[in-house]
Amino acid sequence: MVQGELHGGSPETTITDIAEIQNATSTEVTFVGNSRYYKHLETTDAAAVILPAKYSGDFTPRIVVQNPQLAVKILIDHFRPLRPQSFEGVHETAVIHQTAKIGENVTIGPGAVIGLDSIIGDKTIIGSNVNIGQECSVGHDTHIYPGVTLYDRCTIGARVILHSGTVIGSDGYGFTQEDGIHKKIRQVGSVRIEDDVEIGSNCSIDRATLGETIIGEGSKLDNLVQIGHNVKIGKGCLIVAQVGIAGSTKLGDYVIVGGQAGFAGHLQIGDQVTVASKAGVTKDIDAGQTVSGFPAIPHNDDRRQIVYIRQLPEMVQRLKDLEGKLAQGDSSE
User: Fold this and answer.
1) Out of 78, 91, 229, 299, which one is annotated catalytic?
2) What is the pTM of this model?
3) Do domains 5-79 and 95-300 have the same CATH topology?
4) Which CATH architecture has domain 95-300?
5) Would the pLDDT of 87 be above 70?
6) For residue 212, what are the contacts with CB-CB under 8 A and spacing of at least 6?
7) Is 97 a catalytic residue?
């Protein structure tokens, strides 16, 4: 099933489930994807352990694979398939505007609201208390969890997952000042979430001032991510929790952003850039770079600076010693 190679043990062993290595039983399979967990191999009761090809020990029985995480995904889907919803069809308490178009085999939960001229694709699941505004479009096989809000004129692609508490299409942070008073610039653009995107819980994706805020195909956002107005995120990007991206910044394809990183506005971030956790990005970044620190600079430069900073107390003491010797007329050093 996982395209692995068995070392030791019997191929006839029955596996009934997958479990974490500390708690696995003699009928369960487990895995180790990170070397720091190798220590648990000494005590696990698992029937077999999935290990990466780089593992050099002699633990058996083991199933060697190239990608343990992919193997886990396959086994979770096999042993823990998604359960059917507790209800099917449209719940009697849902409020659906008469102009809305609902596809085939759609599930709409209690208290959900779907506005004027909105379109819901086939086999999509709308959880309880979801609010979908006017002129929205939701693709097929999408799952919107309870408590999600879509403002007017948002477009959601196929096979998208939106987790609870997320808001799509809230106003971008746009103001101008006149005579000391902050005047709101109406945000009249939209948001487009492309196919196969997953957005975690309690994220805010702001609508564009004009045009679109875009989350590209296959990108995955963690919980508590803030995307400003007119931001463009390419395909296949990974954005971890508590990241904030200010307005009109553009991320290329397959960008990885660590937790709590922040981006100034109107930046251009190239393809396959990696931004470390807590980095503060204030300038454009060329494709393929790895950056860290605040302000974000190439990662190796940041590491050297950290080393120098840690040496500062010793350097200061040496400087004081040298100044003292010079003051006493000793210039031998």
Assistant:
1) 229
2) 0.87
3) no
4) 3 Solenoid (2.160)
5) no
6) 189, 190, 191, 192, 230
7) no
